[in-house]
Amino acid sequence: MSVTLLFAIVLALAFAGYLLGRANASGLKAAGNSLHSIPPYHGYFVALWCGLPAFLLVLIWLAAQNTVVDRLLLAGLPSHLTEGAAPARISLMLGEIKNVAAGRIFGTPDQITIDAAARYRSLQNMASLAMVVCTLAAAVAGIAFARSRLSPDFRARNRVDGILRWLLIICSILAVLTTLGIILSLVIESLAFFSHVQVSEFLFGLSWSPQTPIRADQIASTGAFGAVPVFWGTIFISVIAMLVALPVGLFSAIYLVEYADKRVRSVVKPLLEILAGIPTIVYGFFAVLTVAPFIRDFGTSLGLSVASNSALAAGGVMGIMIIPFISSFSDDAITAVPQSMRDGAYALGATKAETIRQVLLPAALPGIVGGVLLAVSRAIGETMIVVMAAGLTATLTVNPLEGVTTVTVQIVTLLIGDTEFDSPKTLAAFGLGLVLFISTLALNILALQVVKRYRERYE
Amino acid sequence: MSDTAQGTGRRAWYEPDAKLKRRHAADRRLRAYGVAAIVFALTMLMTLVGTIAITAAPAVTQTMVTLNVEVPEGAVDPSDPRGGSYQKILNESVARIFPEVDTPRELRELRQLFSNGGQYALRDKVAADTSLIGRTFEITFPLSDIGDQLRKGVIDRDLPREQRRVSDEQIGWYDRLVEQDRISAPLNWGLIFNADSRFPELAGLWGALVGSFYALLICFLVSFPVGIAAAVYLEEFAPKNRFTDLIEVNINNLAAVPSIVFGLLGLAVFLNFFGMPRSAPIVGGLVLSLMTLPTIIIATRAALKAVPPSIREAAIGVGASRMQTVGHHVLPLAMPGILTGTIIGLAQALGETAPLLLIGMNAFITAAPDSMFNPSTALPTQIYIWADSPERGFTSRTSAAIIVLLGFLVCMNAIAIYMRKRFERRW
Predict the structure, then answer these.
(1) pLDDT category, B106, cuts 50, 70, 90?
(2) B206-423 CATH, one of 3.30.70.330, 3.40.630.30, 3.40.50.720, 1.10.3720.10
(3) By C-alpha distance, which of B62, B85, B60 is closest to B72?
(4) Rounded to two decimals, what is the model's pTM?
């Protein structure tokens, strides 16, 4: 039975529970009792007791079922196959059994596999059936329990409000759980990585070539995990992006707030914000399709040699993407400066430009700096533009016409199409992810602090 | 009195001196910088949209060829019409048009002109109507990538042979097909309704559209109720203490975490820990919902804040509980704002690529997923796959797919703006 159908049945049962509870309360009322809560609340109470436990049970069951079935399946295999086998070997074995069970048979599987496949199918069927039975039992038991609580004096509204309140709290804790999940998964995998590679080598090593030999006898590089060139590439591309975005964003904000009349502003501001709404994959394709060839041709015509995945192309396009961030943050910060300060400057005979440079910008600086920090954090976390337009090889260079690689590019290339979790190559991605997470978090916190601490309050 | 004009160094009070001129020039300069910055940004926007639209234009039509096919009685078993060797039948009907082609090399080149999908089109047609067996009928199917590009002029015929992807013979055969009026160029519906393929002329977005739909559905089903619940708690119920502060700081930080980190989370937790299927829209949807959650929570809190306290006081005054106040009055009044924020969040999720790459939604899958547990691609990851494909025909298809994606985003944002304008209420 599909999970969707099961959910539908649980929902139907919950609705039936609602009708039951309400009818029960109406009956009590008709019999001359005075109720504490109106009848629908009795219904809600029964429905919640019916639906919530059953729903949670299904979720937990679904999360655990595959693991439990795999364990049972492994326990049933002959011990000479499983004892001491590498995790990769075991997962290969499980995969084969599941393929056979699903009818995707390649070659001639041995008898053990065929038997195991049959057992896997029966275990799966049993698990699904047990889930349906347990869920329905939980739903019915919930109805029965809730129904037994109902009486004229039962404080149904308070109880329902209490349950709902807990649901709200759980939902808001989910945000904390997400952060916790991010930190835990990054830290755990990174610790596994740092058991292969020393932290100091990772953070300060100058050579990055994560290709490790797959077999022991293979002649390949042994893998070097010095991430400095990767960090440098990220910083370099972000600097190029900021060199494009900062002047353009700041000057357009100044113009829009101080010079432009209302009509121009109402047209240009939304147009600039379109730039922020375009998915980054589109920017990436734009960089590959238009900007990189343009820069290459232009450079070649000047007699320069330009890599097809130059840092300039990736950084420049990223800068275009970031323009709206800078301009809208600066816009807000400049707008927030009170009119009286402008008037004061004008009264002293300052021109508009002088007012902007010497009065408005200093007053708006914390807001602008905060916005710039957020934009930098955005730039170093940006993925698709650099995956498509920046290079794959890690080079330490200050020439914007050469290709550099970034943290996000490396994460994507290390993890695409590779699911083995025990090689340092895959784990390195999580090490990089941890660095990325920490640095963007630090930038965000710093940005908030700057805005909070240095913002002058104008009354 | 004329003594003010005396002396060469003196000037009238109304004539600006050099310093004032400099100051005014600086003012004009700043103004010009501002105009230049805006012009630069808007030019880039127009270049981006323009180049992609121009590159996408060839993908609007698909070059098709119409052949007269004869399916001989014995070639296909009517009880098992899908089992026939249709490629052979097609080759024979091609050979009837070009009887002079006989060397193996030439035959191979000739077949390169026709799409590999022809045999399947023929198979489906015969399977749908077995009475066609033993008759001669017309069938229309795509030309291959090179044929398509010959018609669209992407391949320059004047180039020397070595720099061209098609041989002189292929151009000759193509021209003969044109003379015989066998070439047509209808609208390229296959781009929308086909699944992915290695062959550009057969590749379409259907699988990606279905995958994105499932992922967004999951994203909506999870993040909408959870986001509203979290926002309602924080805005209407939460006491001011360290715990709720922690939640708030968390949500604000989550909104700024790079999307690829969510991909790492999905990979480590959903795929590795819970053992969910790789490349499945359900995992993509869950990862996207975690990303969309902060957007929805922040938008919902803003919408709840905009509902004036007098509404709440009135409801509590007539005996409603706080939960009733929120459920019956505050939430319905805030709903337009919440929906606007949700649509904008979903639009962001639709364009998100990086986390989906990490959970494997960039697999090569030639059929639309049957359910949200089957492997699938999504619209942005499909664009990524096509952008990486070396075949020339994929360039215009990638741009066309981007136009489709941008079209969806424009629609979603337009709905959001409309709702904000239409239902926004000011107290």
Answers:
(1) confident
(2) 1.10.3720.10
(3) B85
(4) 0.89
